Amino acid sequence: NPPYISEEEMADLSEIVRFHEPLHALTDGGDGLKFYKRFMEDIPLVMKDKVFVVFEIGWKQGAAVKDLILKAFKGAEVEV
């Protein structure tokens, strides 16, 4: 899974997670959407036709990730 925890949410993580996982594995240092934004830019360069993609996302990110997908792929079917 990508580093999807926002900087804002980092303070709310349990100490077990915060202090025993590498920081770069948890957060991108911003809104937690950096990976998804980059993915939506790059995937059209390598996909041939239809693709099936599954992401792990933060519990508050469903609408934002869905919006990124729909902007990149008009008419895509997206379930959150």
Automatic annotation (TrEMBL):
GO molecular function: methyltransferase activity
Domain of life the protein comes from: Bacteria
Xref: SUPFAM superfamilies: S-adenosyl-L-methionine-dependent methyltransferases
UniProt record, GO biological process: methylation
Record keywords: Methyltransferase, Transferase
The protein's name in its UniProt record: Protein-(Glutamine-N5) methyltransferase, release factor-specific
InterPro entries per record: N5-glutamine_MTase, SAM-dependent_MTases_sf
